[in-house]
Amino acid sequence: MVGVMSSNVEDVLVIGGGAAGLNAALVLSRARRRVLVVDSGRPRNAPAHQVHGFVSRDGTPPSELLAIGREEVERYGGRVVAGDVRAVRRDDDGFEVELADGVVRARRVIVATGLRDELPDVPGLRERWGRDVLHCPYCHAWEVRDQPFGVLGWQPGAVHQALLARQWSADLAFFAEDLGDEDRAKLVTRGVRIVDGEVSGLVVENDELRGVRLADGTIEALSALFVPARFVPNDTVLSELGCELGDDGWVRVDPSGLTSVPGVWAVGNVVDPRAQVVNAAAGGAKAAAAVNWDLIEADMLEVAR
């Protein structure tokens, strides 16, 4: 990574150096745009051992994938720097971006700041997140296939996840404190074992998950626990810029990632909680093409004046 300060205005500032941000920067750098990526260095998938479902990169450690991405961006002249964005202010000529060690200017901004996973208050859960306490069956269930595992039914969407996760194991338990008749019938039909009661802790031996402990002291043996996290977007920059929200409370974007604020795009998990790495990367590429064309139109308009 290189230093921030530059005497020229960046064509595009990308906030966030994950798959979405780096792929946007890659496409824009290849389009001969001046691109600066500011990366906080706190990727959401850091606890995971590998990335899956990304053709040609399946099984790649997340840190390795991002390192490759940074090298590719820099190969085409883009710059990637470590840091946090403190504020983004819009003016007549574009955007002024305040960093910890200075201020940079950019004509357009792509926000790819991701989201954070909120987990239930079960002791030990966070420490094993991404190891044997997991979120996405498509991302992780193959690695624990045919083993006994469970799904923690702590919020809406957990039943759906259990119905899905049953695809990978015949020995699947659903832990629920309160379960409606309709959902209970679905789980029974799918062959999911229902365990009523509160999960109070994990059973870990030799740094491996062995089961969960219920509030009544019962221990249910399992090798992995799927927990549908509550998604919270890291959208402070977008909200401060005045980007409109949809009915779901997330920032609204068009198919290219353009927000309601001209010149500001948002891609990846900050606007799409279900985007896996491959989806986020694709979103970054789509936004990059839209941003590049927007700049072309702006340049032509300036020449015509």
From TrEMBL:
Pfam families: Pyr_redox_2. The keyword Oxidoreductase applies. Gene3D superfamilies: FAD/NAD(P)-binding domain. It catalyses: [thioredoxin]-dithiol + NADP(+) = [thioredoxin]-disulfide + NADPH + H(+). Residues 11-282 form the FAD/NAD(P)-binding domain. GO terms for molecular function: thioredoxin-disulfide reductase (NADPH) activity. Keywords: Flavoprotein, Oxidoreductase. PANTHER family: THIOREDOXIN REDUCTASE 1-RELATED-RELATED. This is Thioredoxin reductase (NADPH). It comes from Saccharopolyspora spinosa. The lineage of its organism: Bacteria, Bacillati, Actinomycetota, Actinomycetes, Pseudonocardiales.
